[in-house]
Amino acid sequence: MAKRVKKAAKKAATKSAKKTVKKAVKKAAPKKAKTPIKKTGKKFLIIYHTPIEAMAQTMDVSPEQMAEGMALWKAWANRVGKKLVDLGSPLVNGKRLHANGLASPSTREVTGYSLLQAEDWDDVMDLLEGHPHISGWDPEATIEIHESIMLPGM
Question: Can you spell out the DSSP letters for the chain?
Answer without folding.
Answer: -HHHHHHHHHHHHHHHHHHHHHHHHHHHSPPPPSSPPPP-SEEEEEEEE--HHHHHHHTTS-HHHHHHHHHHHHHHHHHHGGGEEE---B--S-EEE-TTS-EEE--S-EEEEEEEEESSHHHHHHHHTT-GGGSSSSTT-EEEEEE--PPTT-
